[in-house]
User: Fold this.
Amino acid sequence: MSVTTATDHAETRSDRFERGLEVLTRIDGEAGRKVVDSLADISPELGHQVVAWAFGDIYDRPGLAPRDRQLVTLGMLTALGGCEPQLDVHINAALNVGLTCEEIVEALLHSAVYCGMPKALNATFVAKKVFSERGLLPGKK
Amino acid sequence: MSVTTATDHAETRSDRFERGLEVLTRIDGEAGRKVVDSLADISPELGHQVVAWAFGDIYDRPGLAPRDRQLVTLGMLTALGGCEPQLDVHINAALNVGLTCEEIVEALLHSAVYCGMPKALNATFVAKKVFSERGLLPGKK
Amino acid sequence: MSVTTATDHAETRSDRFERGLEVLTRIDGEAGRKVVDSLADISPELGHQVVAWAFGDIYDRPGLAPRDRQLVTLGMLTALGGCEPQLDVHINAALNVGLTCEEIVEALLHSAVYCGMPKALNATFVAKKVFSERGLLPGKK
Amino acid sequence: MSVTTATDHAETRSDRFERGLEVLTRIDGEAGRKVVDSLADISPELGHQVVAWAFGDIYDRPGLAPRDRQLVTLGMLTALGGCEPQLDVHINAALNVGLTCEEIVEALLHSAVYCGMPKALNATFVAKKVFSERGLLPGKK
Amino acid sequence: MSVTTATDHAETRSDRFERGLEVLTRIDGEAGRKVVDSLADISPELGHQVVAWAFGDIYDRPGLAPRDRQLVTLGMLTALGGCEPQLDVHINAALNVGLTCEEIVEALLHSAVYCGMPKALNATFVAKKVFSERGLLPGKK
Amino acid sequence: MSVTTATDHAETRSDRFERGLEVLTRIDGEAGRKVVDSLADISPELGHQVVAWAFGDIYDRPGLAPRDRQLVTLGMLTALGGCEPQLDVHINAALNVGLTCEEIVEALLHSAVYCGMPKALNATFVAKKVFSERGLLPGKK
Assistant:
């Protein structure tokens, strides 16, 4: 059992955090940082792991484009249920990495086939909130 | 409340089924047809709805590319849990519409962040089975 | 693979929508229409599918009485979790199609055996809200 | 906080078990007893609670007919996912208390709207197995 | 099939309720009683079962310490999703039976591995609320 | 936003893997290594993350004893559903870190209150398999 990679250089915990924070900020913008900040007084280690592991180690890997990762993520958060706060962050992230409003809405329509109407509706109403906050809702001129 | 589209022409139930069957066969190949065939003696109506609605009405819509739909679908099926038979069909479908083995494996690694390790592992072992059946597993020369 | 039914006549998209809207209004009353209306600016297609497919194609089939469909639906929404907005609509619908308050409360008690106490409690508190709004709560004279 | 009922007589643990066993046997037949028997060497207390509480205390309450309880139960087990062994027992139970094959298949078709196609398919294939074992599958003459 | 225990004495429904209420009050304090009280006008039987069965029959069994039961319960409520009200009650209960803030936060960090980041985050923010209400949050001097 | 710890020394990817492998082997024994080995040809990176992150970074933290982590884990895996392979590994792990058969069975009985009977049954039958394989089942002399 061996795992070899080209990048087996030594990193400190802070290095990994800094690397992840750059990714988090690029993808999620202020919303992602706010979640991590709000963990500072209750579980700084969970905040560290979101940044250093989820964004630094996993999200930033080259094997799947950020846009594609967000499509997978929208599918997962819709299917899990009860993850409206994370859908809010990740619908924003989806827009940040280049998915269009139309693609996001279509992905959530597609989710009705696999997750059922209730979860598709819950996710779509989060998209409505996010698009509205960003001035992207066609009906809200 | 009104919904207008360019394609508001009359279709019979059979028309919609035929349209969906063409999509299903294109995306899922024989595996999809086998699922529908195996419903014939227990719930032909469920088979009809999978074909006519899921594939004919939803999947074939132009707003999201088949490759992108499969990324969302892999995320959903991994998150739902207990959907290994559907993951089998849809990992095959993902390959059929142009996702690479590397992208699929990376999407399932990405799912560990949002769904946890157990569901990511379960989905990855379905990918191992599918890739092996298609002769795509690097270790199985 | 063939599916034949007695009703294989041609319908337009609008025909199916109108047919479904009649069912939706009969079952869910204003609450159902409000959900569809609130989708108009974000995902009119999801609104169309809720109406034309969920209510027009599936709900209205003769093989299971509306009252029985609502019992299945209450079970599903309780088990899924995080579907309180849909439970609100469907507890109202359950009353509209003839289930009594006592039967609904008993169904949710029954759900504790299969879904556990937390989900049974969450669903029961939605019933409390709905009954209260309709003046049906015994303790709210 | 007080709860009063007409039946506040003293019962031993064995009384409650015997009462539940009569209900379990009436509803689930041998399949239910087999589940309880298979718990005897690992968790007799879980077996006791299934019998005495789930069937003796809850299932047997008069507020909802057995047929209606099974409709709620089919909805819950389909929605939960991964409960195929329990669906097997409860599709048998549904037939035992008077639901027809057609109503069960229709309930599972209805579940596709709320739980999505994968869970509806998984439950329908359990129904196919059960109907086949009982010689009720139309295509299996 | 027989289940024998040392305590097979006769109890009335009220006896079981009283026994459970003592346990509920000891573990959950006022929060638990409030939940049961709020069920009085909608489903007194569900309130009875929470008290008499969940706390009287199961929680009070000697085979697992209250502290250990709360660890299992925190894991379950985090994994189920959408059970924030119950997490609130049970994070309070965890503190009441001797788990420290640090152990609770660590258990929720641990949950990220198995349930994914979104559910770990949702549960951790409930802990933040509970600790804050009890004056236990380090950052809230 | 800063996270400081006493152990901010530099580690390579291999260092973290080796550290995690020691923990994984101590807790899960051969079963854990087998899971990682079986990932080698499909997703070595997922294997790396299970070892280096889940076991090296999270499991080994001092804030919660291994025995307590396993209680949380049993609760989560039971609640998630469809995670029988992981329950197998972690019921073995629970025994390895000092939980008794009686405590494990009691924890799974306790889970019936929060997850419902079906998931409690599924998990208990995995325990039966594991105990039987280890010669720990009382009825299997």
Q: What stands out?
A: Helices of chain E lie at 13-28, 30-38, 44-59, 66-80, 84-96, 101-115, 117-133. Chain E has two domains: 1-62, 65-133.
